[in-house]
Amino acid sequence: MDVSDLAQARGALQETFAERLLADPAAVRARVRHTLEQCAEAFFDAAWTGVAVQLATDLRLKNDLLKRQGIGAALASVSGAVTLAPDGDRIIVDKLQDRAIAAHGAGVTFLPSVFGRPHLVVIHAPGWQPVVQYLRLEALAHPVRLLRTLARGPHTTGELAHAWEHSPPEVSRHLAVLRRAGLLTARRHGRYVRHTLNLPDLTALGADLLTAVLR
Questions:
Q1: pTM above 0.90, yes or no
Q2: Closest CA to 186 of 149, 155, 151, 142
Q3: What are the pLDDT digits (tens) for 99-111?
Q4: Which of 57, 87, 167, 192 places its Cα 20 to 30 Å from the Cα of 155?
Q5: Regions of the chain short of the pLDDT cut 70
Q6: Model pLDDT, residue 17
Q7: Residue 140 forms beta bridges with which residues?
Q8: What are residue 134's DSSP bridge partners?
Q9: How far is CA 13 from CA 4, 16, 109, in A?
Q10: What residues contact 62, with CB distance under 8 A and at least 6 apart?
C-alpha cells in the first residue's frame, strides 16, 4: 500500500493533501512553514519567553544532580516513578504496562514539558528511540512555594502545611523530592524535624532558579 492509498483510506481531505504534497512538495513545505510562523507570532512567542527559562533551569538541575549525585538522583528528579535498577543497567518506569524496551546503541530521550499531562509518558515504537516525556521540574512544581517559605528560615512540616494550606502528607512528599534533589537538609529538634534550605546548592543551580524561588 503506497502513500496515496493510505491517504485515501483516511478520507478525502487527507487524499487531497497527499496529492498536493506529491505534486509540489516545496510549495507545501513553504505553506506549512508560513502557517507555523504566523501561529508562533500570534500565540507562542510571548509564552516561549517564560517557558525557555523554566526549561533551561530544569536542564541545569538535571546536569547538576548527574554530576554531584549520579544518574540515579537525576532520574529520581524526573519523576518518583523513574528509578535506576540496583544493577545499574536498566531504567525502570513504574507505569501500568509491563514491558521492557531495549535502548542499547540508540539511547533514551528525556523530553521536559511545561504543559504536558499526565506528568509522565513513555513513548516507543519499534525501530525508534524511546522517549520519556515528563512534566518539567517535578521537584520544583508545588515545592517552589515551599522553598520561598524555607528561604526565610527553617520550618517544620506542620508549619509549611499550615502556611500553604496543604495536608502534612502532601508537604512531606514534596519535601522528600527536594531532599533527593539536594536542596534541603532536615534536623530533629525534640519532637519536631526542621527543614532548612541549602542556599549554596540552590544558588549553584543558577540565577533563574534562585529568582523564581525568592521573588
A1: no
A2: 155
A3: 788 777 778 898 8
A4: 57
A5: 1, 96-97, 116-118, 136-145, 181, 200-215
A6: 83
A7: none
A8: 112, 120
A9: 12, 5, 33
A10: 74, 77, 78, 110
